[in-house]
């Protein structure tokens, strides 16, 4: 007789590990021991995740209950979140199983209608409760965001990810109900019944308390918010009780829940019988289904050996199944088994259908009992015990009451024990989970709301989610209806019970209601999906895309409302009360009404004519001789006219429309002497935290129009929503373009490839050479009005260079010069205005520079030229020379400037240098052509077959041209003389947070910067300039190299960039473009 082996409960093992976590000490070796040889490292500590705090480490982090472990490291807190999350998952599983057992035994009634619905939402409710009960009021205000994140995340996950997945796995042909294997967005989908639609309508009604609690924000009421919280709390409790009593007196909701649970029993009975009667085990030793044995079982059941199992053969199997304590009609069992297995609807089961069905049921059994390995027989027996009282899955499709069961005392005892165990686990480990999430937020800097929104619903809802997907995969109307009813019912409990708990915490702890964005997300998702489920019973496959899209959009909406306008909010764990108070103060930002980048020229001109005529805008500054006549492009002129009209009409939301050609921005559009006045963007002090944003007039306008103050305040909310939706729609329009996905997919891959080249280490490394400050070398930097250019200028001034700043805006140049001189009193710096998208401006700059050198009694030469200027334009614009603006700014202008300054570089008594700034995006270029019209950008769009401006392609192309030009110029200079004094380098700064992406929708650029920052790939200007400084100060032997990654390192660029034939062709065609815009003498000097 074999000894009985019992499995140690895994949750208890986790608890034991947590309790035993402590500090570990080794023997101490003094770092000052005279007999030790240093390896160059001292006072080096192990990674933080190896140094979890001991039981006495309360000064570092606060231990829950005084003995559970805590840590301040990222990995340590992630581990604790995973462990406590698993324990909450076990609690939710116990409560779910116990509820089903009790409901199956008692049937619909008072217990099932009042008690059991509450138990299903209990884990979420407990987590929400403990999130607002801890510590001081300030701590509770911070941690309660975790509860709100769980409430919003649970609702959104159920109605988006789970709802959409059920449509995908349950799809059938909407015409004949047959199984659908292909992707037919309109012809396939799922069908539900009318009672499922009723459940969806109940869910929509349950959002009323959310609307009530938002009334003070909607109407900008400065008082009474606490009273509204109390009213909403009472209403949510009334809704909860009404929903429970509705189930008592209209028990179809309970009956559907019961039918959902009873569907599981047929699976367990068949599996246990097959396991007992089979020649081996249905599961292999690794826990996976034994396919060969299942195929043998198929042949054994197929008594006539015709390779299919008929209904009569299946009936013989059903007769052999003994459901303990239950009466089973074999014919009814056959119908239900055939319904579950026969996906082809041909009334017989082939081998593939039989094997697939058995494997699905085995997976369900393993998920239910959590046993593996040598306990395989317990899988079958344990799963059957769980579902024994649910055998009437084999009844008709109507919602029937439960049949009698054998030994009801044991079932009640087991159900009560599971409910008690689940409640205890949830109550004990909810607080540690909240603390772990809070500490993880503090360690990573990720707001706790987003962590709880994404992670915590996985712990409390994943068990039911798996069951829902398995039932939906049966591809039957009945099982699909039950699944969707469960989803709607769970959300209804979130909107009533969980909200009531959250409101109670806010009211009792006197917390500030600061959750408008989260509530808006719940409202939008609940209403959209609720109305979709209320008025239709057929859901084509395309509806899953709506559900899936709502999940990221929900996070996006919260991000927009909370952070898009630069508003600080609570939610970063560890912020001090003073910081939280400062975050609530009024925050003012400038705003302007400007022309949209993608607006048509014709539409802009018509809008200018109206604004400057009937609109009454003051357009004198954009006339000939006015301060804003230059730059002479329709975008700039339209922006000035729109902005003046906007200000004169008190920032009315309708005053910045112009038939969709205008938009509000917080980026100053002023250029040079043309200064556009701004309005004032403010967060009203009565509306703390994130949320409903107010727009008011500038002080001057407010004085003139004080009689309109009340009317303006009434439209603040409308303006906020219009503005937010405008930003979202602009982002969505951008996301649907091919160029966006090229940026989102190929550019990160190109960046990773460059870093891989860096890790392989095949390039050279060069040390920076010191600068002879006594000679004061002269350096010219283009694009020096901000970002990288300004940072490089500041550094080279420190190195002893006389720095010449070149840029488009006099105002911005003066600002950079002033900032550098404030930091370094003895700095030598000068600014010149130059527009690289104009050959005329480039040649004027050269003349002005030469004249300045002569007047300053300086050598008529330069020692360093850094071509840094570059733009990323998302709309097509022609320059005065007739070229694409991005191509001329990024390459053609740099080529022309370099060629025009070569004589000055050649005149230098010191070795001179050219540094061209390129980008890793050059790696995305594949098909290279250098015809004149392609370089000019005139034929680039038609040649590539794009309907929209291919800005990503053009940016990559311009940066490839810049790199190839660097190599070709280096080659030509070396051919002219091996000891030639001019060296040429290319430098790639990587990803730097600058204004180059200002034309990309701000919503997307901020998200991109956030993601890149979390991946540690985003650099500031000071870090990004390192490769540029490396190239500028490297020895001349580094000529022709591609600098990347800082520390003097170089890497290999795209293989096509080393093609000398391509380089020669680029040089020839670039010179031909230059010839059209300079004098004969200038061209001869340049070409020589």
UniProtKB/TrEMBL annotation:
Highest taxon above the source species: Eukaryota
Domain EF-hand: 289-324
GO cellular component: plasma membrane; plasmodesma; side of membrane
Protein name (record): EF-hand domain-containing protein
Recorded topology in the membrane: Lipid-anchor; GPI-anchor; Multi-pass membrane protein
Gene3D superfamilies in UniProt: 1.20.58.1040, EF-hand (1.10.238.10), NAD(P)-binding Rossmann-like Domain (3.40.50.720)
One GO molecular-function entry: calcium ion binding
Family, per entry: Belongs to the Ca(2+):cation antiporter (CaCA) (TC 2.A.19) family.
Keywords of the record: Antiport, Calcium, Calcium transport, Cell membrane, Disulfide bond, Glycoprotein, GPI-anchor, Ion transport, Lipoprotein, Membrane, Metal-binding, Repeat, Signal, Sodium, Sodium transport, Stress response, Transmembrane, Transmembrane helix, Transport
Transmembrane segments: 65-89, 101-123, 143-164, 202-221, 227-249, 411-430, 487-508, 539-561, 712-734, 740-760
PANTHER family: SODIUM_CALCIUM EXCHANGER MEMBRANE REGION DOMAIN-CONTAINING PROTEIN, VACUOLAR CALCIUM ION TRANSPORTER
Entry keyword 4Fe-4S: no
Subcellular localization, as worded in the UniProt entry: Cell membrane
SMART domains linked to this entry: EFh (SM00054), X8 (SM00768)
């Amino acid at each position: 007789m074999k000894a009985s082996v019992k499995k140690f409960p895994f949750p208890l093992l986790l608890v034991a590990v947590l309790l035993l976590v402590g500090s570990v000490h080794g023997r101490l070796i003094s770092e000052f021991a005279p007999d030790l040889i240093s390896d160059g490292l001292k006072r080096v500590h192990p990674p933080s995740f190896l140094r979890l705090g001991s039981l006495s480490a309360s000064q570092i982090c606060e231990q829950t209950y005084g003995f559970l472990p805590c840590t301040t490291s990222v990995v340590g807190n992630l581990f604790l979140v995973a462990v406590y999350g698993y324990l909450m998952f076990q609690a939710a599983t116990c409560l779910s199983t116990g509820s089903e057992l009790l409901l199956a035994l008692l049937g619909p009634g008072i217990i099932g209608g009042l008690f059991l619905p509450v138990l299903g939402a209990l884990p979420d409710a407990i987590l929400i409760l403990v999130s607002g009960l801890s510590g001081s009021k300030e701590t509770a205000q911070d941690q309660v965001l975790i509860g709100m994140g769980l409430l919003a995340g649970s609702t959104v996950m159920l109605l988006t990810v789970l709802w959409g997945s059920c449509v995908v796995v349950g799809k059938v042909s909407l015409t004949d109900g047959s199984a659908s294997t292909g992707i037919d967005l309109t012809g396939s989908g799922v069908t539900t019944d009318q009672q499922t639609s009723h459940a969806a309508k109940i869910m929509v009604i349950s959002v009323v308390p959310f609307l009530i609690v938002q009334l003070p924000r909607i109407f900008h009421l400065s008082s009474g918010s606490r009273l509204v919280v109390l009213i909403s709390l009472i209403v949510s409790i009334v809704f909860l009780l009404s929903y429970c009593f509705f189930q008592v007196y209209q028990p179809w909701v309970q009956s559907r829940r019961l039918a959902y649970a009873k569907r599981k029993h047929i699976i367990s009975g068949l599996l246990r019988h097959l396991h007992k009667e089979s020649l081996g085990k249905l599961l292999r030793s690794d826990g996976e289904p034994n396919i060969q044995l299942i195929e043998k079982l198929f042949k054994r059941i197929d008594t006539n050996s015709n390779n299919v199992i008929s209904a009569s053969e299946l009936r013989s199997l059903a007769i052999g199944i003994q459901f303990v304590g239950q009466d089973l009609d074999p014919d009814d069992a056959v119908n239900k088994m055939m319904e579950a297995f026969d996906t082809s609807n041909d009334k017989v089961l082939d081998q593939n259908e039989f094997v697939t069905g058995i494997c699905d049921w085995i997976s369900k059994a393993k998920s239910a009992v959590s046993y593996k390995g040598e306990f395989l027989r317990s899988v079958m027996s344990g799963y059957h015990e769980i579902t024994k009282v649910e055998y009437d899955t084999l009844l008709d499709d109507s919602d029937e009451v439960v049949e009698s069961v054998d030994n009801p005392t044991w079932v009640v005892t087991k159900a009560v024990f599971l409910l008690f165990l689940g409640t205890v686990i949830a109550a004990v480990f909810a607080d540690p989970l909240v603390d772990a999430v809070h500490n993880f937020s503090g360690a990573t800097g990720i707001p706790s709301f987003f962590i709880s929104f994404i992670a915590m619903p996985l712990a409390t809802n994943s068990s039911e989610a798996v069951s829902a997907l398995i039932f939906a995969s049966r591809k039957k109307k009945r099982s699909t209806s039950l699944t969707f009813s469960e989803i709607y019912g769970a959300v209804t409990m979130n909107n009533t019970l969980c909200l009531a708990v959250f409101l109670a915490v806010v009211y009792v702890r006197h917390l500030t209601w600061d959750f408008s964005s989260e509530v808006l997300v719940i409202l939008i998702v609940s209403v959209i999906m609720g109305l979709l489920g209320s008025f239709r019973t057929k859901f084509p496959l395309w509806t899953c895309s709506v559900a899936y899209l709502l999940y990221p959009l929900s996070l996006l909406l919260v991000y927009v409302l909370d952070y898009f306008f630069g508003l600080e909010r609570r939610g970063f764990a560890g912020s001090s009360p003073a910081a939280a108070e400062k975050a609530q103060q009024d925050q003012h930002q400038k705003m302007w009404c400007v022309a949209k980048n993608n607006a048509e020229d014709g539409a802009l001109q018509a809008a200018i004519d109206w604004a400057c005529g009937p609109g009454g805008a003051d357009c004198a500054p954009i006339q000939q001789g006015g301060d804003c006549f230059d730059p002479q492009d329709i975008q700039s002129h339209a922006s000035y006219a729109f902005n003046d009209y906007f200000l004169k009409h008190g920032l009315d939301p309708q005053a910045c429309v112009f038939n969709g050609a205008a938009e509000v921005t917080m980026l100053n559009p002023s250029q040079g002497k043309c200064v556009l006045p701004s309005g004032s963007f403010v967060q009203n002090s009565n509306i703390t935290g994130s949320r409903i944003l107010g727009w008011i007039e500038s002080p001057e306008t407010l004085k003139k129009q004080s009689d309109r103050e009340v009317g303006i305040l009434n439209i603040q909310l409308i303006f906020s929503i219009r503005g937010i939706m405008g930003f979202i729609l602009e982002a969505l329009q951008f996301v649907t373009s091919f160029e966006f996905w090229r940026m989102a997919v190929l550019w990160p891959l190109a960046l990773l490839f460059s870093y891989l080249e860096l890790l392989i280490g095949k390039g050279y490394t060069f040390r920076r050479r010191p600068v002879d400050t006594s000679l004061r070398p002269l350096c010219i930097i283009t694009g020096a009005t901000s970002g990288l250019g300004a940072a490089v200028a500041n550094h080279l001034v420190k190195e002893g260079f006389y720095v010449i700043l070149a840029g488009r805006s006099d105002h911005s140049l003066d600002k950079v010069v002033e900032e550098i001189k404030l930091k370094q009193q003895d700095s030598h710096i000068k600014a010149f205005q130059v527009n690289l998208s104009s050959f005329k401006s480039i040649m004027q700059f050269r003349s002005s520079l030469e004249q300045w050198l002569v007047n300053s009694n300086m050598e008529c030469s330069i020692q360093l030229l850094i071509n840094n200027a570059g733009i990323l334009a998302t709309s097509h614009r022609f320059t005065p020379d007739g070229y694409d603006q991005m191509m001329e700014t990024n390459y053609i202008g740099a080529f022309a400037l370099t060629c025009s300054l070569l004589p000055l570089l050649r005149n230098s008594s010191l070795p001179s240098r050219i540094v061209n700034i390129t980008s890793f995006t050059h790696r995305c270029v594949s098909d290279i052509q250098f015809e004149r019209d392609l370089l000019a950008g005139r034929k680039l769009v038609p040649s590539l077959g794009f309907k929209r401006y291919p800005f990503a392609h053009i940016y990559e192309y311009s940066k490839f041209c810049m790199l190839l030009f660097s190599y070709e110029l280096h080659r030509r200079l070396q051919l002219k003389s091996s000891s030639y004094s001019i060296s040429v380098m290319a430098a790639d700064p990587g990803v730097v947070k600058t204004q180059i992406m200002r034309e990309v929708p701000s919503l997307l650029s901020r998200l991109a910067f956030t993601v890149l920052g979390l991946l540690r790939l985003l650099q500031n200007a000071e870090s990004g300039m390192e490769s540029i400084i490396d190239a500028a100060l490297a020895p001349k032997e580094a000529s022709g190299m591609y600098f990347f990654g800082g520390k003097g390192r170089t890497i290999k660029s795209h293989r096509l960039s080393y093609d000398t034939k391509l380089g020669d062709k680029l040089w020839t065609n670039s010179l031909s473009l230059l010839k059209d815009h300079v004098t004969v003498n200038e061209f001869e000097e340049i070409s020589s």
